[in-house]
Specification:
- There is one protein chain.
- The protein is built from 18 helices and two strands.
- With 402 residues, the protein is mainly alpha-helical.
- A two-stranded antiparallel ribbon has the order 1-2.
- The protein has helices at residues 36-86, 89-111, 114-144, 146-150, 158-161, 167-183, 187-198, 208-223, 230-238, 257-282, 287-303, 307-317, 320-323, 328-344, 348-356, 365-374, 378-388, 397-401; strands at residues 10-17, 20-27.
Amino acid sequence: MDKDNEKASTIKILKKENGRISVEETTEENIISRHPLVEILDDFVQRIDDIISAASSMIPAAGKIFNNRIDKLNARINEAEKKLKEGTPAEVSHASAELLDISYTSERIARSKLQEVLAKSLFIDIFAEYDYFFGLVLKELYEQREDLLSSLSRQISFAELVKFRDLDAVKNSVLELEIENIRRESYVEQFEILKRKFGITLTAFAEWPKFVEAAQRRNLMVHCGGHVSGQYLDVCEEQKYVFPTRPIINSRLEIPGKYFIDCAELVCRVGVMLTHTLWRKLLPKEKESADDELNNQIYRLLCAKRWGLAAEIGLYALTPTMTQGTKEMTHRIRICNTAIALKKSQRHDEKERLLANFDWSASIRDFRLALAVLSDEHTKAIQIMKEIGKKGELVDEVGYHQ
């Protein structure tokens, strides 16, 4: 590309000021970055969303491509058979050659597993994105905690040392090696290493065994063509994974559509939980910022209509560990947004239990409005809206429409 004619790509962004929305044009370089951990996490969540979108569109499309190939092949066979029966001697010879070519094509089609290859590749990519994300999170936390960085040790010979341009280069080399050594381990061992280093348990969630099984299945896809190994069974059972039906060694595992989506969203949740748990533990002075960003994460998922994922992350965000010391306003916003996600996921009983756990009588009108809407008390909601008017503590005119 000609550098002189290269133009900076522009992006349109929305800006809210005095209750009104405006559209501005800027370049990617001019967008103000948020906390590095937030940027890392948001990129990771988006990559997983991209993979889910790709799987939802491309795998069915691959099925249509395969069916089209079959249809075209059958049409060629029918035409060749017709010429064999009714054609001139020259047409019969041509049809015979055509059928020979068709036999090679049909063999290739019979061996084709286009949908399976796509599903396998995208499934493996889920964990490739997670591994990359995991390294970035660790790197950022170590860089923000000088004491953690200083605690790392590595033997460096004088010959190696003189190759570094400065002390920062030495630090980066030591840190990169540390992270790479951790990433080489299994996910079970990675979480054990984090527990030993930071004194925090990261596996105390109900879906940990499912996460381990998915990671082990990924290993089977990469190294064993999807065939079950003894190691796969042993690791899964050690982590208390309960097989719907225990597979037989050397049998071949598939990646059904629902399993694929469930695993992708589970890996995404693990990434969110890992980031926010470590953020609060290692950077405790930033707890308020972390709380706000966790609320923002749930809100963005609601905007994207990712109801199930928003609900699960919301419930995680409402655990005692995550709400300890959280401001009341932040806490109640989190409750309302989680309740929205539960309602949209048709999990009405869970929504009702969640809302019933808190006293809303003394809350500001904005929260009472949210409670009325979530409870389908429309007449009450209308009355509260009239009381609030164009602008409340949290809600404004645009907010009503949104």
